[in-house]
Write a structure and sequence with these properties.
Blueprint lengths: L13 H8 L4 E2 L1 E7 L2 E7 L2 E5 L4 E7 L3 H9 L1 E6 L5 H6 L13 E4 L2 E4 L4 E13 L2 E13 L5 E4 L2 E4 L11
Antiparallel strand pairs: 1-11, 2-3, 2-6, 4-5, 5-10, 6-9, 7-8, 9-10, 11-12
This protein binds flavin mononucleotide (FMN).
Amino acid sequence: MAQELTTEDGVVDALRLRKALGTFVSGVTIVTTEVDGEVHGMTANAFTSVSLDPPLVLVSIAAAAKMDDRIKQSGRYGVSILCKQQEDLSLHFAGARLKQPIAPEFQWRKGVPLVKGALVHFACTVTDSHPAGDHTLHVGHVDALYHEHGDPLVFFTGSFKSLNFQGETTWEF
Ligand SMILES: Cc1cc2nc3c(=O)[nH]c(=O)nc-3n(C[C@H](O)[C@H](O)[C@H](O)COP(=O)(O)O)c2cc1C
């Protein structure tokens, strides 16, 4: 059990918040957009569904990240949900210096760039951008989606994992 999270004082600071939120398992996405003919990408796990009808999703982007202004400029973004083989892409688009640099390839869907080889592509048009603390919540209408089979890349307590499915699921939603 994580000792530092079991204290009773309820203190909220950036480190404890990050650690606590890191126990909420997520997938990993690359958010992409195009500005002045140039493609930009950023690794993000603050991605969520918002509405089925109309189809809306949301990405939460740090106001300090270059991607925030770029999405505001273009009014469009792509979300590529990564598969377990794409860990190097997630590091690349988080600004890490890889020992073996990579050259990501993009695929265009409805005028939006997306990362090749991902499990899911969402091509989105921004409907609302809400400032929220030090982030901006960019709500996007899903104009098109493309879904491949495969296993997702998973992020948990600050590191990448892959799922090992064992046995049958008890519930299907
Ligand atoms: C697994 C993972 C998830 C991340 N999720 C987010 C996120 O949801 N929102 C965000 O603003 N930054 C997130 N980041 C950090 C950005 O990827 C990183 O700060 C990036 O370098 C910002 O790039 P930019 O300033 O060039 O746009 C994440 C990083 C990693 C490794």
